[in-house]
Specification:
- By secondary structure, the protein is an alpha/beta fold.
- It is built from seven helices and six strands; from the N terminus they run αβαβαββαβαβαα.
- A six-stranded mixed beta sheet has the order 2-1-3-6-4-5, with helices on both faces.
- Helix 2 links the parallel strand 1 and strand 2.
- The longest helix is centred in the N-terminal third of the chain and has 29 residues.
Length: about 250
């Protein structure tokens, strides 16, 4: 005789079913929100990115002080902070360098080490077709009293001037006004025939973020809070410029 198939009946408590359903729904919701938060931060608003160019690097230390503080290190530190600020805003970011290195070995042109390095930076900017770019530097002067952030644009670039002015306005508000609380300080916008501004096809500004030769600004350039605010101010200036370009 064939055995009759056994039929099992599982009784589930309604409260347990409801609790199980709510637990599953909660897990799905948390997973979705996590994914949404990540996509919101890193989902680029545009196909094009913003290029950040930390000046100098490697064998080229840039300007310095008597203690051995080097421009190249400050430039990179602020640039990496600026990168984070822009990523949080949802923009793509391309760096000409992300570590202490010079770029001349990547160039095939027959020129000086300095010119080959600049040629690579120019190529990175032009080939990536950015919405805008910012080249970050530190200033120096024979006069220890010289101070302040100076922002340069190529003389015939209307968009470069708009970008520089937008960054300057943000520096005045967010860095000098809110952070240092000094209404007498103002960022200066200047035209200049720098290679990185002349040889690139996209809106750009060269930002000198302070004087290493000024005792007060020298200390600030070593202060993490100050450098974070500098990066924040430049970011806000770039973002406001891009909003006005849409």
């Amino acid at each position: 005789m064939r055995k009759k198939p056994k039929i099992y009946v599982i009784k589930l408590d309604r409260k347990k079913l409801l609790l199980l359903g709510l637990t599953i729904l909660l897990i799905i919701t948390i997973t979705f929100l996590k994914g949404f938060r990540v996509s919101k931060i890193f989902n680029y608003k545009n196909k094009e990115a913003i290029v950040i160019d930390p000046g100098h690097g490697g064998i080229d230390g840039g300007t310095s002080d008597k203690t051995g503080l080097l421009e190249k290190d400050i430039n990179l530190d602020v640039s990496l902070k600026l990168k984070k600020e822009l990523l949080v805003e949802g923009y793509g970011v391309i760096m000409t360098r992300e570590k202490d290195e010079s770029l001349e070995n990547l160039s095939s042109i027959n020129a000086s080490r300095y010119r080959r390095d600049l040629n690579v930076r120019k190529t990175i900017i032009n080939e990536n077709e950015p919405l805008a770019f910012a080249s970050i530097h530190v200033n120096s002067s024979k006069k220890s009293g010289a101070r302040g952030i100076k922002i340069y644009y190529f003389p015939t670039s209307t968009e470069g001037k708009r970008l520089a002015e937008s960054i300057a306005k943000s520096v005045d508000i967010n860095l000098y006004g809110k952070f240092l609380k000094d209404d007498n300080l103002r960022a200066e916008v200047l035209p200049e025939d720098y290679f990185i501004l002349r040889e690139t096809k996209y809106p750009g500004a060269l930002v000198e973020i302070g004087f290493i030769t000024n005792p007060e600004e020298n200390k600030l350039l070593q202060d993490e809070g100050y450098k974070e605010k500098v990066a924040f101010a430049i970011k806000k200036g770039i973002v406001e410029y891009l909003k006005g370009s849409q």
